[in-house]
Amino acid sequence: MKVVAGVATDIGRVREGNEDSYLLEPPLYAVADGMGGARGGEVASQLALSTVEDGYLSGHRGLAALVRDANTAVFARSVEDRSVAGMGTTLTAVLVEGDAARLVHVGDSRAYLLRAGTLRQLTEDHTLVQRMVRAGEITRREADVHPHRNVLVRSLGTEPDVEVDEADLGLLEGDRLLLCSDGLTTMITEQQIQAILEAAPAPQDAAERLVRAANRAGGLDNITAVVVEVRGDDADGQDTGVAATVSRPRRPARARRTRWARPSLTRALVAAILSVVVLLAGFSAFRTWLDSRWYVGVTNGHVAVFQGIPATVMGFHLSSVDLETDLPALEIERLQVYTDLPRGINVDTRADALARIEQMRKDLKAAGPAPPVDTAS
Ligand code: MG
Fold this sequence. Notes:
Blueprint: E1 2-10, E2 20-25, E3 28-35, H1 40-58, H2 63-80, E4 88-89, E5 91-97, E6 100-106, E7 110-115, E8 118-121, H3 128-134, H4 140-144, E9 165-170, E10 176-180, H5 182-185, H6 190-199, H7 203-216, E11 223-231, H8 263-291, E12 294-299, E13 302-313, E14 316-328, H9 329-333, E15 345-347, H10 350-367
Antiparallel strand pairs: 1-11, 2-3, 3-4, 3-5, 5-6, 6-9, 7-8, 7-10, 10-11, 12-13, 12-15, 13-14
Bound molecules: magnesium ion.
Magnesium ion binds next to α5.
């Protein structure tokens, strides 16, 4: 088997820098999509791939072990260097050996196989929405437009250890493998990806066309595509055929991006959001409860119906006047049974409050005229 590869990467139309990195070290190919504030994402994706590359070139370790080494390297750097604290990256790599390929994967970059007219996703996104799809909570279509669709549940370099997905794949002549960052798959559909992969005459054309299509669709993220084509032994072309004219920015430009993809940061944000939701729900429930409470009290020297409770919290009255009567509060208070009036007399309903006030009128009438009150003293 011969393998021919092409690659294209682009900053996209919105980002200030490209935090995607790729590796084209035939027969090893990879993409990494870094994340983290300031320079973090760029550092993470490059460090991860250079660690894998160096490890591969020095030999003897399996691909998954190299990815775990990369995790250790990125995590150690983020602990040592505060300017890149908490950075992380995705990493999806394929190693072609004869007629087989070994695939390793962490995060939400993807690997696809185009074979005999069918495009198949070889990796599973390590995202919150993918977990929800698996659990049957949302459909895949809902996941595609979910507001938190780029929240990762697994990434490289954000924890001391990482679980690496691994797979082996037999290769056939004519297969086209695609490794890509989510800046491609969130911008164009799999139908579009397949059409471009099928129509492009060579892997390099395919990679460039994919990136162009993502940019035309908005280019909201950095976009990287590595296309690897399996050819027969007698096929033309270089073994590792990257077109000579292609610029290969292995060390992408300065980058800045903040994405809340780190599990620890994600957890903190989710906790914060949940706290607010609980507070709001609690407040709403309290408000509803308050609105169901009634009492008879005093306002402007008159007996009145209040909704709420006769209390004040941090300067906020927990009640409001529903109805102010013409009944003088002082005359009612002097009756033995209503001395609590200034503090509020609780009742169950508004009707009960009105009935209580009618009773006050009757009791006042029965008690006879009030003695003179000297309010000036
Ligand atoms: Mg991305």
